[in-house]
Specification:
This protein has about 240 residues and is of the alpha/beta class. It has 8 helices and 7 strands.
């Protein structure tokens, strides 16, 4: 039954956001595996099946614990009167920012309206399927919403979260300010905030908080699941 639910949800994910990332096929693959697992239960060695079941149980417990931590950071409020808001890029499409990116930019705009002295840093390079860089596309979207052009700095050379923040720190330094002393608010998708804050601390941002953008509710299980694996990868490659 869980496998069937996963298959249906996987099809919904593909219909909404398309096959642009390999992970977009995760729920389809996981659903197929669970259905196969259930079908073979009576035909394979019982010790092997019990060992596999135990491994899946441990993975499930680890998943719940880590997701609880990620979700707790999504609920934390951003600090007021930041010197800089760093909005982390996401996919640009021909028609404009993706749903995920648009949610981040709208959240950035809301913060700016309440704190108009804040400078915004729009980050992200141009991917192979994107019409413009995420930094440029994000800036243009904010300008159309009414943010003054002079209040936005563009960073368009980064391809991941670590580079987003690293290059943003360089822009802050070029403005004559110390990133470690500046009050920073990182805006990203809610599921992304815990990992972003860990990376910011590693890069020397001492006064950092986060603000989440909320995309389509139905896609949140997909994004939170993807973040589980992204966080593990980050801990192995960058945060160790």
């Amino acid at each position: 039954m869980i496998g069937i639910i996963f298959l249906i949800y996987g099809l919904i994910v593909l219909c909404i956001i398309g096959p642009y990332r390999v992970f977009n096929f995760f729920y389809l693959s996981a659903g197929s595996f669970l259905i196969l697992f259930a079908g073979l239960w009576n035909n394979l060695n019982i010790k092997f099946m019990k060992a596999l079941s135990f491994m899946l149980l441990m993975m499930g417990i680890s998943f719940i614990i880590i997701e609880a931590i990620i979700f707790s950071y999504a609920l934390k409020p951003a600090e007021n009167d930041a010197d800089y808001v760093i909005v982390l890029g996401s996919q640009m499409r021909e028609e404009g920012p993706s749903l995920d990116f648009k949610a981040r930019l709208d959240s950035t705009y809301d913060y700016f309206i309440d704190h108009p002295d804040t400078m915004i840093i729009s980050t992200g390079a141009k991917g192979p399927s994107e019409p413009v860089s995420e930094g440029q596309g994000g800036a243009e979207y904010l300008i159309r919403k009414g943010v003054p052009k002079e209040k936005i700095l563009i960073e368009d050379q980064s391809y991941n979260t670590y580079q987003n923040l690293e290059n943003a720190a360089k822009l802050i330094s070029q403005e004559g300010e110390d990133p470690s002393d500046s009050r920073i608010v990182i805006v990203s998708a809610s599921y992304h905030l815990y990992r972003a804050q860990l990376l910011a601390k590693k890069l020397g941002f001492d006064h950092v908080s986060c603000k989440g953008g909320h995309g389509l509710l139905i896609l949140q299980p997909h994004y939170y699941t993807r973040e589980f694996f992204a966080l593990i990868k980050e801990c192995i490659t960058t945060l160790r």
